[in-house]
Amino acid sequence: MYIPRLLEPELKKRLDAPINKVLIIYGARQTGKTTLLKRVVEGKENVLWFDGDEPEVRELFDRASSARFRAVFGTGTVVVIDEAQNIPDIGLKLKIIFDHLPDIRLLVSGSSALDLSGAVTEPLTGRKLVYTLYPLAFEEMMNYHGLFEENRRLEQRMIYGYYPGIVTAPEEDARLFLKELSGSYLFKDILSLNKIRKPDKLVRLMQALALQTGQQVSYHELGETAGLDNETVENYIDLLEKSFVIYRLMPFSRNLRNEIKRSRKIYFYDNGIRNALINNFNFLNLRGDTGMLWENFLITERIKYTEYHKISVNRYFWRTHSGQEIDYVEKRNGKLYAYEFTWNPRKKKKIPKAFLENYPVEEAKVIHKDNFHEFILPGLS
């Protein structure tokens, strides 16, 4: 079963565009990058496929020269390199192909930005277009089986998330998949680095982050929980973010003296991974972290929507030392948008007056389960 991805039309268009670019797709493991690549090149002639996980492929790319690549590719016109981060000096090799074999179209994927992004940034300056493939989006599932059906499964998505391997799986299979994925497999790229010598402490850090989803985190407190120093905590969090496991929101601060300026909140790109780390797959009426799950779900879906629809935004939270706060602040086209989240539509929540009086706010809303479509799918309302 294939669920069409929002990136598919864009990648097909770019692959056929008159101006050639190296098309690079980043994303966490198991988000469907290989399946997407196959769909993009489906029906194309002279497609060559290379899997960077295979030793013979890495050996094939070992000796880099335009003459060698021409011999390897032969009459191929579309070259797909999957798991490209496993090929040493991949950025330089892509540059050689792009510069000396202009008839070749390159489509490249990497399960982690750890090596791939660092390796391609400088060599491919001006030569590449970069995309991120996230776990499935609410919008993609809505397009697949309709809004009514996806609304019906909202609680399930908040618990099990949107990885392609679990969206249609039975409950027990979904749990097993998530537990396996949230273990060493998801962090394979991080653990393979020499600087990661304490995988058990990395897991403890991840569990601590899961329990503090959407809250302000202290690297010192996280370090005490995981048995790591502050610098190592910050380094691990940076690696996890580059691996598309978590992301950070920084505080919005401009005018008020008592605004928090040096804090951060951490969220997961998938609720299912977060819940697997703490081994909690209970229904919402049996758990005390529904607010965390809802906030994580909404912000992540907003990120997917803005990224896939090429809407440039800056994302923040806002809080004062006296405890006034806004869950999510977005700056878009020079304008501010403020949102508070609550699962229960009857719960009274307001945007703080201090924020509204000191900043020109284009929109201020409380988002709950009865109106969330206008936040994660504004084009629908």
Class by alpha and beta content: alpha/beta
- Could you tell me the number of beta strands? 11
Question: Helix count?
Answer: 18
Strand composition percent: 15-25%
Q: What is the chain-wise order of helices and strands?
A: HEHEHHEHEHEHHHHHHHHEEHHEEEHEH
Helix proportion range: 40-55%
- Mass-distribution shape: globular
Radius of gyration computed on alpha carbons: 22 Å
Biggest beta sheet summary: 6 strands, mixed
CATH architecture of the largest domain: Orthogonal Bundle
Strand arrangement in the largest pleated sheet = 7-6-8-9-10-11
* CATH fold descriptor of the largest domain: Arc Repressor Mutant, subunit A
Q: Ends: how far apart?
A: 29 Å
CATH class of the largest domain: Mainly Alpha
Describe the protein in words:
- With 381 residues, the protein is of the alpha/beta class.
- The protein folds into 2 domains: 7-132, Rossmann fold (3-Layer(aba) Sandwich), CATH 3.40.50; 138-376, Orthogonal Bundle (Arc Repressor Mutant, subunit A).
- The chain is built from 18 helices and 11 strands.
- Helix 5 links the parallel strand 3 and strand 4.
- Helix 12 crosses helix 13.
Defining key terms:
five-stranded parallel sheet, single chain, alpha/beta, Arc Repressor Mutant, subunit A, 11 strands, Rossmann fold, 2 domains, 18 helices, six-stranded mixed sheet, about 375 residues
